[in-house]
Amino acid sequence: MADVKKEARFNHTEEELLAMDEVEFRARFRERCHHTMEIQVYSAAYRDKQLPATQVETAEKFIRVWNKRGLSQDLPEYKYVMKLMGYAKTLIEGGHVDLSGNAPRPLTDEMREGFDRILYDRRSVREWTDERVPDEVIDKLLDAGLWAAHACNLQSIRYLVIREEDEPGLFLGSDIPGGPVHIVLVQDMRVYEANLRMPMYNRTLDCGAAGQNIVLAAHRYGLGGVWLTFNETMRERLKKRFELPDYMQIMTYVDVGYPDQMPTAPLRNSVEYATLYRI
Question: Looking at residue 90, what DSSP letter applies?
Fold first, then answer.
């Protein structure tokens, strides 16, 4: 019976979608269009196969509701779905969709070396200079976090960006000196209502992927960074300070600033040691 109830959540009527909270509706729009059209469009395009006309029915329903709700057609998920719809209609008509223009640009040897330096030279930094981090650099880190892989394209990541100078003591309780900028990763748990079949650990992985992008981007922009966690006292203090509702879950945070420390790289296990099986 429980499985039937969960399955029914994928099949709301247009009236139910119209009455739904906007955040949840947009999440369902992304999730349903991903699972009922995006995957099939790319598969058909790759194999040069005709797409059945019924393949876009769910997406068309969500587009109708989107427009009835009066949501902006400039929002990213709408623009992306409309692009997919163009591909789908071509494939339904038996045409060919050329996606070669979406191929990643090839990397030069210098770019590959740069990537390796970002990956292997990044360190956790715990001492900072007094140089102020520009807002535009912080925005680059936040954007990097949003571009991390995210299950079902649900896009749960939200941020609190707090300069220590503006809120001194708010992060008391950490085991390191506070960095000049705290980037708190919060997840809007309402979006996961769009797919209750998703394993719970996927939610943590979504946040982890965003955090990893942020610390790597910090190194790319010449910042030091350290990935931290909260005790419950700190978490409750932030929740109260920013009046966050229960569905906004504070997960972890990254402190960033200009580094005044050069730690030695902690060595890692070998690939051979870490690989349990290779068949």
Answer: H
How far from 270 is each of 124, 171, 267, CA to CA, in Å? Answer: 21, 36, 9
Looking at residue 175, its pLDDT comes to: 64
- Look at the block and give the residue holding tokens 């009835």: 68
Contact 255, 182 (CB under 8 A): yes
Closest CA to 88 of 47, 26, 44, 46: 44
Residue at 104: amino acid letter: P
Please state, in angstroms and rounded to a whole number, the distance separating the CA atoms of residues 237 and 230: 10
Alpha-carbon gap, residue 122 to 47, rounded angstroms: 41
Phi-psi region of 152 (alpha: psi -120 to 50; beta: other; left: phi over 0): left
List, for residues 127-144, the tens digit of each pLDDT value: 999 999 999 999 999 999
d(CA 102, CA 260): 41
Which neighbouring-strand residues pair with 253?
Answer: 184, 228
What pLDDT, in 10s, does the model give residues 170-181?
Answer: 988 876 667 899
What pTM was computed for the model? 0.91
- The answer to whether 59 and 32 are in contact (CB under 8 A) is yes
Instruction: Using pLDDT thresholds of 50, 70 and 90, give the confidence band for residue 34.
Output: very high
| Residue 254: CB atoms within 10 Å | 24
What tokens does 33 get? 């269009």
Residue 153 has pLDDT above 90, yes or no: yes
Q: Which of 91, 85, 44 is nearest to 64 (CA)?
A: 85
